[in-house]
């Protein structure tokens, strides 16, 4: 089942079950996807929908950090619950060994030799493993590998 179909199905189920928090999160996600669709003036591909989902997850993570720093644990906990709902739709993240292997493979395929090739390597990995990789972690790993 495609992600868009799964989102719609889960939204209807949550709506019927009166799960207000889940409905609110899925409604925001659907709105963000619809805005992206309007921006592109076409239906979203699976990768584009995953990108929208990843941005929503990142927004929640940043909000949690800011709320925690400000001492607003109540708001941080609410964002954490929303993040839990969103993460259920992300593909399984790559483990450290799989990520290192993906970096080595991409560097070998692209014949990357220095920092000038970092963007190409990053794009290749993010394209192949959309939604499965944390950008900061990947950046650090690629940078250390290319500098050695």
From TrEMBL:
<keyword id="KW-0808">Transferase</keyword>
<dbReference type="GO" id="GO:0016740">
    <property type="term" value="F:transferase activity"/>
</dbReference>
<dbReference type="InterPro" id="IPR003789">
    <property type="entry name" value="Asn/Gln_tRNA_amidoTrase-B-like"/>
</dbReference>
<dbReference type="InterPro" id="IPR023168">
    <property type="entry name" value="GatB_Yqey_C_2"/>
</dbReference>
<dbReference type="InterPro" id="IPR019004">
    <property type="entry name" value="YqeY/Aim41"/>
</dbReference>
<dbReference type="Pfam" id="PF09424">
    <property type="entry name" value="YqeY"/>
</dbReference>
<protein>
    <submittedName>
        <fullName>Glutamyl-tRNA amidotransferase</fullName>
    </submittedName>
</protein>
<dbReference type="InterPro" id="IPR042184">
    <property type="entry name" value="YqeY/Aim41_N"/>
</dbReference>
<dbReference type="GO" id="GO:0016884">
    <property type="term" value="F:carbon-nitrogen ligase activity, with glutamine as amido-N-donor"/>
</dbReference>
């Amino acid at each position: 089942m495609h992600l868009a179909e799964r989102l719609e199905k889960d939204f209807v189920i949550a709506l019927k079950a009166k799960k207000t928090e889940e409905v609110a999160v899925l409604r925001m996600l659907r709105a963000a996807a619809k805005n992206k669709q309007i921006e592109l003036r076409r239906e979203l591909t699976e990768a584009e929908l995953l990108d929208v989902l990843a941005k929503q997850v990142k927004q929640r993570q940043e909000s949690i950090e800011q709320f925690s720093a400000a001492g607003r644990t109540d708001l941080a906990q609410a964002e954490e619950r929303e993040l839990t709902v969103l993460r259920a739709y992300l593909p399984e993240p790559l483990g450290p060994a799989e990520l290192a292997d993906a970096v080595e493979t991409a560097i070998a395929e692209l014949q990357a030799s220095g920092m000038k090739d970092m963007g190409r390597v990053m794009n290749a990995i993010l394209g192949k493993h959309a939604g499965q990789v944390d950008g900061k972690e990947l950046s650090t790993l690629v940078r250390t590998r290319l500098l050695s």
